[in-house]
Amino acid sequence: MIGLGEVLWDVLPTGRVLGGAPANFAYMTNVLGDQGIVASSVGNDELGREACQLLQELGLNTSYLQRDDLHETGIATVTIDGTGQPNFTIKESVAWDFLDWTADWEELSARAEVICFGSLAQRSSTSAGTIDRFLQNAHPKTIRIFDVNLRQSFYNKDVLRKSFEYADIIKLNEHELIQVSSLFELGTGTAEFLARRLLQDFDLKLVCITRADRGSLLVSRGQTVEHTGFQVTVADAIGAGDAFTACLAHHYVRGNPLQQISEAANRFASWVATQRGATPPITPDQLQKILTEVPLY
Predict the structure, then answer these.
(1) Hey, which of 4, 70, 213, 215 has its CA 20 to 30 A from 107?
(2) According to the 3-state scheme, what is the secondary structure of the chain?
(3) What is the pLDDT of residues 97-139, one digit of tens each?
(4) Per-residue pLDDT tens for 245-279?
(5) In CATH, what number is assigned to the domain containing residue 179?
(6) Domain annotation covers residue 297
(7) pTM for the full predicted model
(8) Is residue 13 part of a domain?
(9) 219: in domain
(10) What is the pLDDT of residues 218-227, one digit of tens each?
C-alpha cells in the first residue's frame, strides 16, 4: 500500500515528530500487517537523513523515498487548539514539491494494490505531474484513495476535480465536505446527500466523511454506515484521519463489510488521537486491544 506525496517534520510546541499524510498512511498500513511504502522525497540534509532513519526504525521500506540535493526536507509548524485539533503552517519549495518520475516509481505504481494520495503534494506543477503519471500507470484494479486533506490555500478546483476523477474512494472531514460542496456547487442538504452527489458525479465506490470525536459516515452506492465515535482524551489529533484511512484500506481490499470497516477505523483513529504525533509505536498486543476493546484512554 503506497502513501504518495509529502513526508515532513511536524514541529509542535512539544517538539518535532515525523508526519505527512501519505507517510502516516504507509506507517499505519504497515502496523496493520500490510506492506506500507512511502513514495516521497526528502532533502539531502540532516532532517532528511533523520527522516529516513526513523522510517526504517518504524519498519518502513525507504527504497522509494527520493533524496533531493537542491531542496530541503519539508517542515510544518503546528499549533494545537483547545480540542486537540492541529493547525498547520507548511513550508513551501521543499523536496516533496519536486517529486521525480523515475523507473523505480514506474515499477512501484504498476504493482501497487492501493495508492493513497492527497491534494497538498499537488500544490506544485512538478509534483502534480509526477502524481498524475503515477496514478495513470497503476493497474486498473488498483484501489486509488484520495485523501482530500485541504491545507491553507494549497488546492484549487482543477486539482480536486482531477483527483476525484482518478479516485475509487475519497476521504474528507466534515469541514472539507462543506468546502468541496461549495466549490462544486453540490447544493445543500445532509452530509449523506452531499456524499451521494460526489458518488454520482465522479463515479466513486465509497465516500468517507470523518467527524472528529463524533465518528464517521461511510456512503457507498447501496449503503450508508454511521458511527458515533468514541470519547477519548485527545493528546493531539495529528494522524488520526490517516489511521482511519489506513484501516479503511486494510479492510476494504479484503472485501470486509462497511459496518466492520467503520468500527475498526473509528477504534484505530480514536487511539491515535490519544497519542502524541502521527506515528506512535504500537505493539501487536496493543493493536489487538485497540481493535477489539472499547478505547477508554
Answers:
(1) 70
(2) CEEECCCEEEEECCEEEEECHHHHHHHHHHHCCCCCEEEEEEECCHHHHHHHHHHHHCCCECCCEEEECCCCCEEEEEEECCCCCEEEEECCCCHHHHCCCCHHHHHHHHCCCEEEEECHHHCCHHHHHHHHHHHHHCCCCCEEEEECCCCCCCCCHHHHHHHHHHCCEEEEEHHHHHHHHHHCCCCCCCHHHHHHHHHHHHCCCEEEEECHHHCEEEEECCCEEEECCCCCCCCCCCCHHHHHHHHHHHHHCCCCCHHHHHHHHHHHHHHHHCCCCCCCCCCHHHHHHHHHCCCCC
(3) 999 999 999 999 999 999 999 999 999 999 999 999 999 999 9
(4) 999 999 999 999 999 999 999 999 999 988 887 88
(5) 3.40.1190.20
(6) no
(7) 0.93
(8) yes
(9) yes
(10) 999 999 999 9
